[in-house]
Prior knowledge:
Layout: H1 2-12, H2 16-30, H3 39-51, H4 55-65, H5 75-89, H6 93-109
Amino acid sequence: MLYGQRAWLCAQDGEWETAVAHGNRALETWEHLPFAMQHIALWPLITASMAQNNLANAITYAKQLLAPIQQPLATATTTELEQAITAWKAKQPQSTRTYLQQAIQLAEETGHL
């Protein structure tokens, strides 16, 4: 959990590369564990990916965030992430970005980020 928290702190400071390193380390640690709180690392990874203009990674992390084993998110946040994934599949990068930004805003408002 420590690496996930470090990722969160680095994301708060805009230290995107370090946030990504810590977030990925957290996911590697949890990879074989039934850990339902991966949002601790996934939200900073989504935010860092967006800041680095890497929509593909942001979508990958969004899909992981919506996995059935993960702690359920607020309905509005889930909807924004699902719409981002749908827009990505439809090759609509601007819509994807908009939905992801709205999901990030909701995560900030609910204290997840």
